[in-house]
Design goal:
Number of strands: 12
Mean pLDDT: 83
Distance between the termini: 37 Å
Shape: elongated
Radius of gyration: 23 Å
Order of helices and strands: HEEEEEEEEEEEE
Length: 229
């Protein structure tokens, strides 16, 4: 434990950022997301859909200008795969038992974050700003099974079901969010960045019973490599 603390101290002491310099940082990482109010959806027979978090990915880059030793501004662009998922579901339809094991809305965005960074100590920054998102894809994906007579011999067999539906008519193309997060730059210089993106604009075009104002709720964790320009 003492060795680990000593190494972290050494890394922190050598993490560099200087006033008046530019840096560029490509990054990639994971996404955990959902859509607010999505747990109010239900099937036609009233069976409720219980929301859960969806896992995706993010890849992009940022350019950062260091205005002062403790203050900088960064702007970037990235592609984010996010959305919302629902828990396993089992129901009867026309005498057939259907089990849905995986169902989710998969939303792809090109995002432009602009954030201000305040370095509490060398290498460690807290940040917030604004983010503009532009949807480039939106699909509903489902995977499940159904017990049915597919051979006509009177014997029900479990059949795998897969399907995707284009949802471009269901979602708005523009999304505005407030990113809030922290980052730490190591000596390498590898940077770890964690952000929560608070969606402020409604994402669904249409309204449903109990679902009138759904917004994106997104957490990202990325690893980047920062180098001077």
């Amino acid at each position: 434990m003492m060795v680990a603390v000593a190494l972290m101290t050494a890394v922190s002491a050598n993490a560099q950022f200087k006033k008046g310099t530019w840096s560029l940082q490509p990054y990639m990482g994971g996404v955990v997301s959902s859509v607010t109010n999505a747990d109010n959806f239900a099937l036609e027979d009233g069976t409720p859909l219980k929301k859960k978090m969806s896992v995706g990915c993010i890849i992009g880059g940022e350019a950062e200008y260091q205005f002062a030793d403790r203050f900088s501004v960064a702007a970037g662009v990235n592609y984010t795969s996010q959305g919302c998922a629902w828990e396993d579901l089992s129901y009867w339809e026309d005498g057939i038992r259907v089990k849905i094991k995986d169902q989710r809305d998969i939303l792809g965005y090109i995002k432009i974050p602009i954030v201000a960074n305040y370095y509490i100590f060398k290498g460690f920054a807290v940040k917030t700003g604004v983010q503009f998102g532009f949807m480039v894809s939106s699909k509903f994906y489902a995977h499940g099974t159904a017990n049915m007579d597919v051979l006509g011999d009177g014997v029900n067999r479990e059949v795998d079901l897969y399907g995707t539906v284009d949802m471009k008519d269901q979602y708005k193309k523009f999304d505005f969010a407030i990113p809030i997060g922290v980052s730490y730059q190591f000596k390498v210089p590898i940077t770890i960045d964690a952000r929560y993106q608070l969606g402020l604009t409604r994402v669904n075009k249409m309204t449903y019973d109990g679902v009138k104002n759904s917004k994106n709720s997104v957490f990202t964790l990325t690893v980047g490599y920062k180098f001077a320009l």
